[in-house]
């Protein structure tokens, strides 16, 4: 591939009007703008709505390489800072709540140690045990609105399902789960809005998790937090702070992502009746392998994580021929990479039978999604149950009236109003 010099890059970008990024129209359908960047400015420096400047990486090959590049750190201390010298942190509210020491903010060797510890607790056995619980959750949530003939799929289905699942995984007692649901809801309702609301809910979650860790230490159960404490008692070190941050990152990473997987997938089916029929036929004949490949394709086509979490250059380096300075933030645009025509045939087409579908929806490298098996289980169970029980499910509003959340990292709908024959 030809190596672009910066001068050529600048000329190329300045000669053509750059699409407006992060506007309202962009949030509705970012794919054309990403396509333009991939072609004309594949490693593109932009000012984000927050005022911070960052590089956007949009080609599949560059994205995959950047995700696994050890010179790109996850630790916000490596950010050179914005014009006012403020470093960018990862998750809103985490710094003031003292929850910074988690997997998405750290590098090896700390990352290696913590990831090994949590992998021991987050076993395939634990995920497999979850299948009946996720099924029961999906059914009981549908039961609650099935008589009405209408629902908001985000608030009544996609939102509660993962929060209860994560509560069970962590070992949050059933009687506390509705409080947890409210705080987590506040955390995302305010996402992109006033920071105060997020910070307050993150602090509540932090206080609750500290108390829970304390209780589990005295009275362990068969849950992830107890396993983390047990593992740390066997010589591997996990501080109380690290345990709380671990529980928090699992909540943060596993919650809104799963909401979006369910919401974006249902939305994709409403827009593509042919593929929807392919899916419903597979559900009817119990074709598990097609259902699995469908969930992977839905992740590639319109996945929950639009942009991977922040990375910072620890030294001067090049991505796709573009020089990046030490301290610069690098954002890998998974949504753009996963529609790269150099990697995927007819990338803008949803094809549930697609083979050779090595998408980057779960990331790549050492930060590859820890919860991918659980996410697959939740996504498959939710979609299968929904379209089996409500076969004539349809949008009850004009698609043009749907609103997407405005955040930088995640891509998902605010609401998804539907109707069906009760
Ligand atoms: C990391 C996607 C569900 C836990 C990641 C990353 C992506 C991702 C792209 C890497 C971020 C980066 O490198 O910047 C997704 C998607 C999901 C999903 C698309 C749903 C469909 C879950 C669930 C859990 C989870 C259900 C846990 C219950 C994590 C954790 C990390 C992570 C802990 C950090 C891993 C590390 O840094 O070592 N996920 N995720 N995710 N995910 Fe997921």
Automatic annotation (TrEMBL):
Question: Which InterPro entries does its entry note?
Answer: Cyt_P450 (IPR001128), Cyt_P450_B (IPR002397), Cyt_P450_sf (IPR036396)
Top-level division of the source organism's lineage: Bacteria
Q: Which family does it belong to?
A: Belongs to the cytochrome P450 family.
Give the protein name, as stated in the record.
Cytochrome P450
Lineage of the organism:
Bacteria, Bacillati, Actinomycetota, Actinomycetes, Kitasatosporales
